[in-house]
């Protein structure tokens, strides 16, 4: 028995070495260790979509990169933000991905720049070229190509039509609060506490909790619930049905805001 097992183990390990040897340098093996899988194997991998979503939120935090001091060259001089925030994809294209036709049409974040929603369903390779090209020109030096591939996968397969779930004017979410509560109290509770106040995102005097963000900016909250928070150990729930995420958001809007 043990000798058979031993043989199988040996066979498997020889197989694994053979597979590793076939993988060209710079490409990761299919069964990559859990450390930091950056290279893409299958564009339908849900982790790739989720990681792409976190890169869209803040690629500098997600990749632990230095923050540029200057404005992004495509950021308009009429915009109100300066320096590092102008490099986040979401700053120009919005939490709802709809740019100047979405929530960032007006207000502090308005840039007049179009959204990325129309690239949904396009081939990731095509979207990758858009990230590299034009006014934009993200080079591989600042944003590694492997990260650009993940961004392209997210934009192709991960974008949510937020107007279906969040009322733009009232910010009220079309979700089942009761179901969302069941999820929050089993999934989110371990880090954020029952009332969502275990972690304060801002300072003590002007605290921000899960409840605060979900009321103030439900679009941001939905993005983070589905894809996770860049650079920290928050979970992503992109493996779940979108309505499961929306229900959690609806519940979070009932949590204390201060
Ligand atoms: C400083 C502003 C700015 C930032 C930051 C920014 N973009 Fe853009 N993006 C633009 C502009 C401007 C265009 C061109 C829009 C046009 O054609 O008028 C564009 C176009 C695009 C398009 C093509 C959309 C279409 O329908 O043609 C994609 C895809 C895109 N950006 C992805 C990204 C990604 C991914 C990031 C983050 C890594 C990002 N952008 C960050 C300004 C920005
Ligand atoms: C494993 C721990 C963990 C779990 C589980 C978790 N989070 Fe988080 N979450 C974090 C951390 C850490 C942050 C970042 C805190 C910071 O930046 O100060 C965060 C940030 C957030 C933010 C955004 C804060 C901001 O900067 O705008 C929201 C909203 C949020 N979490 C909601 C949730 C919800 C809802 C769930 C359940 C679906 C959840 N989190 C599950 C750890 C977790």
Task: Walk me through the structure.
- With 258 residues, the chain is mostly helical.
- Helix content is 42%, strand content 0%.
- The protein starts with a helix and ends in a 6-residue tail after the last helix.
- The protein is globular, with a radius of gyration of 21 Å.
- α4 (124-132) packs across α5 (145-157) and α6 packs across α9.
- The chain has 2 domains: 46-159, no CATH class; 163-252, Cytochrome Bc1 Complex, Chain D, domain 2, CATH 1.10.760.
- The chain has helices at residues 2-22, 46-62, 89-93, 124-132, 145-157, 177-192, 210-216, 218-227, 242-252.
- The chain binds heme C (2 copies).
- One heme C binds at residues 56, 59, 72, 74-75, 86-87, 89, 91-93, 113-114, 116, 118-119, 127, 130-131, 134-136, 138, 143, 151, 155.
Descriptive keywords:
binds heme C, 9 helices, Cytochrome Bc1 Complex, Chain D, domain 2, 258 residues, 2 domains, 42% helix, mainly alpha, disordered N terminus
């Amino acid at each position: 028995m043990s000798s058979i097992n031993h043989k199988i183990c040996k066979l498997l390990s020889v197989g694994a070495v053979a597979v590793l040897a076939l993988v060209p340098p710079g490409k990761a093996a299919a069964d990559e260790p859990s450390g930091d899988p950056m290279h893409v194997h299958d564009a339908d991998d849900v982790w790739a979509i989720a990681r792409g979503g976190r890169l869209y939120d803040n690629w500098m935090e997600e990749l632990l990169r230095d923050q540029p001091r200057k404005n992004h060259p495509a950021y308009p001089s009429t915009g109100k933000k300066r320096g590092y925030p102008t490099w986040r994809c979401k700053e120009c294209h919005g939490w709802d991905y709809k740019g100047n036709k979405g929530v960032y049409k007006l207000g502090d974040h308005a840039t007049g720049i179009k959204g990325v929603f129309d690239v949904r369903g396009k081939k990731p390779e095509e979207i990758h070229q858009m990230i590299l090209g034009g006014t934009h020109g993200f080079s591989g030096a600042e944003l590694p190509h492997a990260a650009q591939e993940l961004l392209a996968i997210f934009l192709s397969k991960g974008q949510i039509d937020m107007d279906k779930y969040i009322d733009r004017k009232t910010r009220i979410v079309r979700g089942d609060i009761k179901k969302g509560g069941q999820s929050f109290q089993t999934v989110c509770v371990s880090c954020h506490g029952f009332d969502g106040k275990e972690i304060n995102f801002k300072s003590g005097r002007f605290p921000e909790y899960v409840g605060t963000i979900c009321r103030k900016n439900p679009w941001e909250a939905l993005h983070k619930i589905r894809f996770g928070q860049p650079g920290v150990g928050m979970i992503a729930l992109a493996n779940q049905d979108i309505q499961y995420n929306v229900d959690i958001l609806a519940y979070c809007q009932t949590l204390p805001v201060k």
